[in-house]
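Table 4 source record.
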Amino acid sequence: MVTRWLWRVLGVTCVGIGAAGTVVPLLPTTPFLLVAAWAFARGSERWRQWLLNHPRFGPPIHAWQSQRAIPRKVKWIGIASVVASLGIALWAQLPPAALAIQVIALVCVTIFLLTRPDA
């Protein structure tokens, strides 16, 4: 009983963060919605179905679960976010070691995005 409640709390929290990501620049939406769907599968099938059938949040979840695909628009938004993050890091004059770590991570994210099929 307590664990189902904790899964629901995690799901609701991730839906909230994902919803905020629809309007907050650089905050991703889909990864949080995927975690929410995963958590709801363990805590509440009714809430999972609500999320999967949601007109805004459901399609990217279905695309990922069925094809491991990311919508093209989302890919380009992600890449633009990567570029913006790197620009902010350069503007903030991060130490070279921190900048190198960030570049490696951002290159990995970009490769991941570009190698997923289009939804």
